[in-house]
């Protein structure tokens, strides 16, 4: 088979979408390493900074369901340009933040732009390129995203030490402005006049459910809500979720049709993604904090420690396809989820005197297993969807991925705060035991989520089946 060749216009579009994916993925990881330095500058506790991470992930999760409609209604060129400008403006506001409240609001603005960059760019690629080029095109776009995840923690730590924490946001300005300018020249202006009206009622209910449930979890940690406030928020979120489900069952064009859940693998995959990602989302937040607060690491050293995890994550991608072909999704996901939970519990055994080689090996093993978890969960969720279900299923998966990441950070912060209170250690620099308790609890929750994957049908995919969706890396 001859190699796929892209025209000049197609290649420019792919580079543009890749740039957007790079910005989004870089900013999702670069902040974690800088949190202690940002906290010191804003006179906050480092263990109260999770709201800056949760706000970004939650905003992205809330806006992703509307991204396709916005592109269809206003055109891919206009929305992608607006997304890049919002991302740059939000980054500037983050760098100028004088308080945690300002920073959280700026991260929301940044998340509004980030939520639109990849979905709208991916939609433009899907509609502009012939179908036989789509797989190679998305593989091309995915590489900068992986590089963003790889470079984020180390770059964030280096910028904090070499310059200041403000530069982890300021570096987005030229990239965002360049992306906006390039979009006006090379992004095709694609629309779909048959898209109809946005399901505003469903969008409002779903957004309210995500915000209230996230705030209820975050309220147990850094926000310091009283238990009655947490309970009211949780009930409001569950009520909004139930209302959306009833609404979607009767709406002519809901955001996510209930018929999607008639697909057994999607039901299991979505629930598994949500709960298993709590552990995966918590680790990039907890490890840099633990290293800097209790292990004596500098920001740059803590960021560099995340590199082995990212490298092992990329290297393990081909292995998961062979394992699924041999053992099937059900066995692989059950075993891998249990192993992932055990590895998370293993981080509770970390000590300041641990040799560096052992710490690096621990990070590499976790990165490889975590990557196999992502690929397996994402693939099993989408593998049985028909052509008319693929768009809705993919958007829902993207939303659940960001929601799971936000929940992971919020749960981790709540657990650390709870263990600090129980152990009587309010000083963040004496919180090693609180981190250990949080690692154990999150690891146990991850292991229990293996029970969700137990519900999968026992199957061994046909050749090529596992790789069709494996480009969904996160």
From TrEMBL:
<feature type="transmembrane region" description="Helical">
    <location>
        <begin position="223"/>
        <end position="247"/>
    </location>
</feature>
<feature type="transmembrane region" description="Helical">
    <location>
        <begin position="137"/>
        <end position="159"/>
    </location>
</feature>
<dbReference type="Pfam" id="PF07690">
    <property type="entry name" value="MFS_1"/>
</dbReference>
<dbReference type="GO" id="GO:0022857">
    <property type="term" value="F:transmembrane transporter activity"/>
</dbReference>
<feature type="transmembrane region" description="Helical">
    <location>
        <begin position="52"/>
        <end position="72"/>
    </location>
</feature>
<dbReference type="InterPro" id="IPR036259">
    <property type="entry name" value="MFS_trans_sf"/>
</dbReference>
<feature type="transmembrane region" description="Helical">
    <location>
        <begin position="79"/>
        <end position="98"/>
    </location>
</feature>
<feature type="domain" description="Major facilitator superfamily (MFS) profile">
    <location>
        <begin position="13"/>
        <end position="461"/>
    </location>
</feature>
<feature type="transmembrane region" description="Helical">
    <location>
        <begin position="196"/>
        <end position="217"/>
    </location>
</feature>
<keyword id="KW-0472">Membrane</keyword>
<dbReference type="GO" id="GO:0005886">
    <property type="term" value="C:plasma membrane"/>
</dbReference>
<feature type="transmembrane region" description="Helical">
    <location>
        <begin position="165"/>
        <end position="184"/>
    </location>
</feature>
<protein>
    <submittedName>
        <fullName>DHA2 family efflux MFS transporter permease subunit</fullName>
    </submittedName>
</protein>
<feature type="transmembrane region" description="Helical">
    <location>
        <begin position="332"/>
        <end position="350"/>
    </location>
</feature>
<keyword id="KW-0812">Transmembrane</keyword>
<feature type="transmembrane region" description="Helical">
    <location>
        <begin position="299"/>
        <end position="320"/>
    </location>
</feature>
<dbReference type="InterPro" id="IPR004638">
    <property type="entry name" value="EmrB-like"/>
</dbReference>
<dbReference type="InterPro" id="IPR020846">
    <property type="entry name" value="MFS_dom"/>
</dbReference>
<keyword id="KW-0813">Transport</keyword>
<dbReference type="InterPro" id="IPR011701">
    <property type="entry name" value="MFS"/>
</dbReference>
<keyword id="KW-1003">Cell membrane</keyword>
<feature type="transmembrane region" description="Helical">
    <location>
        <begin position="104"/>
        <end position="125"/>
    </location>
</feature>
<feature type="transmembrane region" description="Helical">
    <location>
        <begin position="434"/>
        <end position="454"/>
    </location>
</feature>
<feature type="transmembrane region" description="Helical">
    <location>
        <begin position="396"/>
        <end position="422"/>
    </location>
</feature>
<keyword id="KW-1133">Transmembrane helix</keyword>
């Amino acid at each position: 088979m001859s190699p796929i060749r892209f025209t000049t216009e197609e290649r420019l579009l792919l580079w543009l979408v890749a740039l957007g994916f790079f910005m989004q993925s870089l900013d999702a990881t670069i902040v974690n390493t800088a949190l202690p330095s940002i906290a010191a500058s804003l006179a906050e506790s480092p263990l109260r900074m999770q709201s800056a991470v949760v706000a970004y992930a939650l905003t992205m999760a809330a806006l992703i369901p509307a991204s396709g409609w916005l592109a269809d209604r206003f055109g891919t060129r206009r929305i992608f340009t607006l997304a890049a400008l919002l991302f740059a403006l939000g980054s500037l506001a983050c760098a100028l933040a004088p308080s945690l409240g300002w920073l959280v609001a700026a991260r929301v603005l940044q998340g509004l732009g980030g939520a639109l960059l990849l979905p709208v760019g991916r939609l433009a690629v899907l509609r502009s390129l012939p179908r036989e080029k789509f797989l190679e095109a998305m593989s091309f776009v995915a590489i900068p995203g992986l590089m963003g995840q790889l470079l984020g923690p180390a770059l964030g730590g280096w910028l904090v030490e070499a310059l200041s924490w403000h530069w982890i946001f300021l570096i987005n300005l030229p990239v965002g402005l360049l992306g906006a300018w390039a979009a006006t020249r090379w992004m095709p202006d694609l629309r779909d006049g048959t898209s109809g009206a946005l399901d505003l009622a469903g969008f409002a209910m779903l957004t309210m459910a995500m915000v209230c449930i996230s705030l209820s979890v975050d309220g147990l940690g850094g926000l310091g809500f009283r238990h009655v406030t947490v309970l009211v928020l949780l009930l409001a979120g569950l009520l909004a979720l139930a209302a959306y489900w009833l609404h979607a069952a009767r709406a002519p064009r809901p955001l996510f049709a209930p018929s999607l859940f008639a697909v057994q693998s999607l039901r299991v995959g979505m629930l598994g993604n949500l709960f298993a990602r709590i552990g995966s989302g918590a680790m990039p937040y907890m490890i840099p904090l633990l290293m800097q607060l209790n292990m004596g690491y500098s920001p740059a050293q803590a960021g560099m420690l995340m590199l082995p995890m990212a490298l092992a994550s990329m290297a393990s991608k081909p292995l998961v396809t062979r394992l699924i072909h041999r053992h099937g999704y059900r066995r692989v996901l059950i075993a891998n989820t249990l192993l992932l939970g055990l590895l998370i519990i293993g981080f509770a055994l970390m000590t300041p005197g641990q040799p560096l080689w052992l710490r690096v090996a621990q990070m590499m093993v976790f990165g490889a297993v975590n990557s196999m978890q992502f690929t397996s969960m994402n693939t099993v969720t989408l593998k049985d969807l028909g052509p008319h279900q693929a768009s809705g299923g993919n958007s829902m998966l993207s939303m659940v991925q960001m929601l799971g990441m936000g929940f992971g950070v919020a749960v981790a912060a709540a657990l650390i705060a709870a263990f600090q209170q129980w152990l009587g250690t309010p000083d963040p620099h004496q919180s090693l035991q609180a981190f250990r308790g949080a690692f154990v609890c999150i690891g146990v929750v991850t292991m229990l989520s293996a029970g969700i994957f137990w519900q999968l049908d026992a199957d061994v995919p046909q050749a090529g089946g596992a790789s069709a969706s494996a480009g969904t890396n996160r």
